[in-house]
Specification:
A 7-stranded antiparallel sheet has the order 1-7-6-5-4-3-2. The longest helix is centred in the last third of the chain and has 30 residues, at 163-192. By secondary structure, the protein is an alpha+beta fold. A hairpin with a 3-residue loop joins strand 5 and strand 6. The protein is 31% helix and 21% strand. The chain has one domain (22-194): Naphthalene 1,2-dioxygenase Alpha Subunit, Chain A, domain 1, CATH 3.90.380. The structure holds fe (ii) ion. Fe (ii) ion (FE2) is lined by residues 50, 56, 60-61, 181.
Length: 232
């Protein structure tokens, strides 16, 4: 995290709520197993917005993870000043997305809960009980985005005797998911540039997009966001 503003508040205080949300995952012990860079022909904001909603999973990701989660089980809460998040539940067809049997720190429904964290403006983190991946976005002109893409596994998976199998399975899955997202977001970018493009309504499953739009309006305009006292 870098800022040229010497008066910027420290990151830890701005993101203290995140720590509270996911402390039982103990993400600090996850092991990064890959780290690479890409350039896609879409806009950084479209890719960020795509990450912030799982509404597109059943369609865009029909060939991979689309069927693992139910729209009815997605939870999209109001955003916070420095980030938004939503959660989905994955079923047992993807064991690495669930808490490993040796993982006793995560309990109940959270053992199959995926957190999708959008740290404003450009750090997107998917955290599951078994693995994580992230996108760090940097605009590359108007029509391209530079992506730092990395991820890895929770220690129970990374240190198991089947670690290499898990890693291979995870990386090939995430690569396939990325190909799907690339296709969707590059098409959206082309569509938005079409003369006939018009904005449409957001679904309640795109609540984080609403919060992100308000964040951007505040940063580039005179919009003032309002938050419930318990979310500030
Ligand atoms: Fe996606």
């Amino acid at each position: 995290m870098v800022s040229l503003n010497p008066d910027a508040p420290d990151v830890a205080s701005q993101l203290s709520q995140v720590q509270g949300l996911i402390s039982d995952f103990e993400m600090e012990n996850y092991i990064q197993t890959f780290h690479e860079t890409h350039i896609w022909d879409t806009n950084w904001k479209i890719l960020a917005e795509n990450f912030m909603e799982s509404y597109h999973l059943p369609v865009c990701h029909a060939g991979t993870i689309g069927g693992l989660s139910k729209l009815s089980e997605m939870v999209c809460v109001p955003g916070s000043p420095a980030f938004n998040y939503h959660t989905i539940l994955k079923d047992d067809r993807l064991p690495i997305a669930l808490a490993h049997r040796d993982n006793t720190r995560i309990t109940g429904e959270r053992r199959r809960m995926t957190f999708l964290l959008a740290i404003y403006p450009s750090l997107m983190i998917t955290l599951t009980p078994g693995y994580f991946w992230y996108l760090s976005l940097l605009p590359h002109g108007v029509g391209q985005v530079h992506i730092t893409f990395g991820g890895g596994m929770a220690p129970e998976f990374a240190k198991s005797s089947d670690a290499q199998t898990y890693f291979t399975q995870l990386k090939s899955l995430l690569d396939e998911v990325n190909v799907e997202d690339r296709g969707c977001t590059e098409k959206v970018f082309r569509g938005l540039n079409a003369q006939a493009a018009k904005p449409g309504h957001l679904s309640h499953l795109e609540r984080p997009n609403y919060d992100f739009a308000q964040y951007l309006a505040e940063r580039v305009g005179n919009f003032e966001r309002e938050f419930d006292a318990d979310r500030v």
